Amino acid sequence: MTPVQGRPVIIDCDPGHDDAIALLLAFASPELDVRAVTVVAGNQTLDKTLRNTLSVLSFAGIQTEVAAGADRPLVRPLVTAPEVHGESGLDGPALPEPAFSPSPRKAWEAIIDLVRSSPQKVTLIPLGPLTNIALALRTAPDICSNIERITFMGGAARDGNWSPVAEFNIVVDPEAARIVLHSGVPITMIGLDVTHKAQLYPSDTEALRAMGGRVPTLVADLMDFYSRFHPRFGFQGSPMHDPCAVAAVLDPSLVTTRSLYVDVETRGELTSGQTVTDFYGVTGRAANVDVGLDIDRDRFVRMLFEAMKRYE
Ligand code: RIB
Ligand code: CA
């Protein structure tokens, strides 16, 4: 019997604690065939997000193409998030030096080549600012026809975490987000409306630690640092932003979505980076995004825990 082929995916990330956990979820899921990991500046500068990507994969004994991309947004200065992820971008647990080198090609080159050459349509899973994705789509618009879907973590229909109305990944590079949302590619937005309902609580962190094993323990240690940032939102736990995007590709039934028209504010003094979502069709514009609005948290956590167990 021929082995079941995983769905070909490319993950673009800016580790970042939740990016790291999302990578560990993806690589422990045989349903996915991760063709490459591409890296972007966001949570920290590119040199740090690249090192963090290589170190986390090395820690878990994973080797794949890791291609560095944009070290800044398309037109704006870079904004990073040391208050969330620390100066290293992955503060907390000690991680090993990378066991392998990054790819010689740029992220957008890897995305273009891998999508163009794939006999099966490729799903893109961006977990940071959308700069690399926008560069790939603008450099090679032909690849849109071989992209199954872009399921990205970012934005919010009705929420904000970096401004009252905008989410970090989109705030960092709203111009890139606008290019992606208007690309014509099928898009699922896993925004704060989903991820704020997918929190891991201290009891979950302890359950991970009790699981034992290097990777579950690493995730628990990552959560110990990451969880310091979220009480200011009144949360009892910490939102699993990026793992939600991977989970939504693994099992779309986890997330409730509505097809709506979404555009990105790029000029607002107070609203720059807002993913402006037309719930009532008042713009008359055709829906361009499947907007995530809810998630089955318990099934999501079970998926995450089952994946972590597979490392041991
Ligand atoms: O707003 C949350 C998003 O911004 C996540 O992707 C997190 O890693 C940061 O990049
Ligand atoms: Ca991220």
Name its key features.
binds alpha-D-ribofuranose; globular; nine-stranded mixed sheet; two-stranded antiparallel sheet; binds calcium ion; 11 strands; 19% strand; single chain; Inosine-uridine Nucleoside N-ribohydrolase, Chain A; 36% helix; 312 residues; 12 helices; alpha/beta
**Shape type:** globular
Mean pLDDT: 97
Q: Please count the helical segments.
A: 12
Helix content: 25-40%
Main pleated-sheet profile = 9 strands, mixed
Which class of secondary structure composition applies to the elements? Answer: alpha/beta
CATH architecture: Alpha-Beta Complex
Order of strands in the sheet with the most strands?
Answer: 3-2-1-4-5-6-11-9-10
Summarize the helix and strand pattern as letters. Answer: EHEHEHHEHEHHEHEHHEHEEEH
Alpha carbon gyration radius: 18 Å
Low-confidence blocks of residues: none
Strand content: 15-25%
Small molecules bound: alpha-D-ribofuranose, calcium ion
Give the CATH H-level superfamily.
Answer: Ribonucleoside hydrolase-like
